Amino acid sequence: MELDRILNHPGARVIPETESGIVVSSRVRVARNLRAFSFPGWLDVDGRVDVWQTLLGAIQEIPACSERVICPMSELTEMEKHLLFERHLISREMMARGEGCGVIVCPEDGFSLMINEEDHIRLQVLDAGLNLQSALKQADALDDAIEAQAEYAFSSKWGYLTSCPTNVGTGLRASVMLHLPALVLMQEMRPIINGLSKIGIAVRGLWGENTEAAGHMFQVSNQVTLGDSEEGIISQNEQIVQELVQHEENARIRLLEEKNVLLQDHLGRAGGILEKAHLLSSKEALNLLSALRLGIELKLITHLRRSVIDELLLLTQPAHLQKMFASDMKPDERDQARAELVKKRITQQTGD
Amino acid sequence: MLCDKCQKAPAAVHLTQVVDGQVKKIHLCEACAAKSGIDLQKTMSVTDVLMGLDHLVPETGTEKTETDSLCPECGISRAEYKRRGRLGCAACYEAFSDDLIPMIRAVHHHLQHGGKKPHAHAVPVEEADFSGDLKAALAKAVEAEDYETAAHLRDQMKDGNPSGRERHGT
Ligand SMILES: [Zn+2]
Ligand SMILES: [Zn+2]
């Protein structure tokens, strides 16, 4: 199955063990539409198929897309859709779509194209660590290559025209995924989220909402897409991410110095539950794995590698779990499988 | 400041909304915000606020005079795009610019693209042939949040340029 080529690829999640893991990954997303068609939400099936064919034809001509995996929504099972969703390759909106809609993934090159979601094209480039600049460069080149094959909807005043005016202009959304457990533990996330929202930067939990963010993973992205240049948007975003990283580092130092017992307790409980539990919900697993991740980065946990935790953060999600155990599981069966998997992986390493 | 809806409790939620092409600031107390379906704990998308919540406008004073204009290219109506929060096609940007300009301004704080441009293929969306002066004056009035002047200028532009909507009759 070709989908395995996507799933077997680690994607952007691997950062060298020696580097800080606060910034997990960078993502650049560009929205584009074809001038000749209505936006996807107003197209009938024939229209969508027409757009799909047009774009597949265009992509065929692009050398950078030669290693593509084509995933039409109409040919995927529900589980396969969920797997792609958990990999951030398709959105919930896309999961509900059918014929003429889908995603084209070039797994080894870290980019994908959603076709006929909210816009005709959603081009996404994913990279590990803080690498928005290089992700933008790659997206820009791909965008040029597509543009050479197809006429975009563009106005000199509004820029690239999108189905929702919140994306108009550059159509660019630059987002960075950050692991901010110390700021959460010190209860400092809410004012940060509120402050950044005032300057047009959105901070959202990767899983769940706001400060409830499971796994303490946050996504920082620009809200304003019109007016500034692509480079301007990216550099503002990078600057804010660097500030957030500094805040998190400071919070980690304060945790170690001022709240050492609380911190040790937090880590000890996480390790204890993960080693002994027989049922683990998705959310509980994310939160406890996040604690271990913090412990590893603070060198308070030395018998585990961060890459093991990062892999578990991915594999303990429902669809990935089902795929691994190759069965249709009820939620409580999943919780059991999840606990087993985690226990095996983290105790295996202890024995090394 | 008191709540715009009940005029009793202090306002705790402040929203910017576009109604009939005009930006309105709406201030609600927590109870009225909750009743209107605004979940304070949840991050709301700007689109939800700007495009979807017409019913938030206090009933008193503003009577609705919305003529339902259509996009000449894709045929969707203003009411339709507002209901779904999505435009129909590239030409909608011109067709509904009265609504879009204040909304885009509220979201992006800019009314002019400053980024990448297509190299060759893309053709700018047809812009109505208003005289440049009126257009510039309108942009300026909108920028200054002077909506009375803006509405006046728009009327002038419509008078001087009757070609748009009636053209298909010829
Ligand atoms: Zn009230
Ligand atoms: Zn239209």
Describe this protein's structure.
The complex is a heterodimer of chains A (352) and B (170). Chain A has 352 residues and is α+β, with helices and mostly antiparallel strands. Chain A has helices at 3-8, 45-60, 78-86, 92-95, 132-147, 181-185, 189-198, 230-258, 260-276, 282-297, 306-315, 318-325, 331-351; strands at 23-32, 69-72, 102-106, 111-115, 121-128, 154-155, 159-160, 172-179, 201-205, 217-222. Chain A is globular, with a radius of gyration of 21 Å. Chain B is mainly α. In chain B, 39% of the residues lie in helices and 8% in strands. The radius of gyration of chain B is 18 Å and the shape is globular. Chain B starts with 12 loop residues before the first strand and ends with a helix. In chain B, strands 1-2 form a two-stranded antiparallel ribbon. Chains A and B meet through helix 5, strand 6, strand 7 and helix 8 of A and helix 5 of B. Bound molecules: zinc ion (ZN) (2 copies). One zinc ion binds at residues 71, 73-74, 76, 88-89, 91-92, 95 of chain B.
CATH topology-level name of the largest domain in chain A = Creatine Kinase, Chain A, domain 2
Point out poorly predicted stretches of chain B. Answer: 41-46, 52-66, 121-131, 160-170
Q: What's the gyration radius of chain A in Å?
A: 21 Å
Main β-sheet, spatial strand arrangement of chain B: 1-2
Taking pLDDT < 50 over at least 5 consecutive residues as the criterion, the unreliable ranges of chain A are none
Main sheet: strand order of chain A: 2-3-4-5-1-8-10-9
**Portion of residues within helices of chain B:** 25-40%
- Give the topology string of chain B: H per helix, E per strand: EEHHHHHHHH
CATH homologous superfamily of the largest domain in chain A, by name? Glutamine synthetase/guanido kinase, catalytic domain
Tell me the number of helical segments of chain A per DSSP (H or I, 4 or more residues long).
13
Protein structure class of chain A: alpha+beta
N-to-C order of helices and strands of chain A: HEHEHHEEEHEEEHHEEHHHHHH
- What ions, cofactors and ligands are bound? zinc ion
Cα shape of chain B: globular
Mean pLDDT of chain B: 68
| Quaternary structure state of the chains depicted | heterodimer
CATH architecture label name of the largest domain in chain A:
2-Layer Sandwich
- How many β-strands of chain A, per DSSP? 10
